[in-house]
Amino acid sequence: MQIPALQAVTIEILVDNFFDVFEPSRPGIVERVTPGRLPKPLVAAHGLAFLITLNHQGRLTRILMDAANDPLPLFNNLEALGHKPEEIDAVVVSHGHPDHYGGLLGFLAKRVGPLPIYLHEDTYFPKLFMTPKGRIGPWVLSADQLTQAGGQLEENRGPLVILDQVLLTGTVERTTGYEKGLPVFKRKINEQEEPDPFSDEQALVAVVEGRGLVVIGGCSHPGIVNMVKYAQKLTGVDKVALIIGGFHLTAGGEALIQQTIQGLKEINPELIMAGHCTGFRALTKLAGVFPDNFMVSCVGTKVLVVGG
Ligand SMILES: [Fe+2]
Ligand SMILES: [Fe+2]
Question: In the chain, is it the N or the C terminus that has fewer CB atoms within a 10 Å radius of its CB?
Answer without folding.
Answer: C
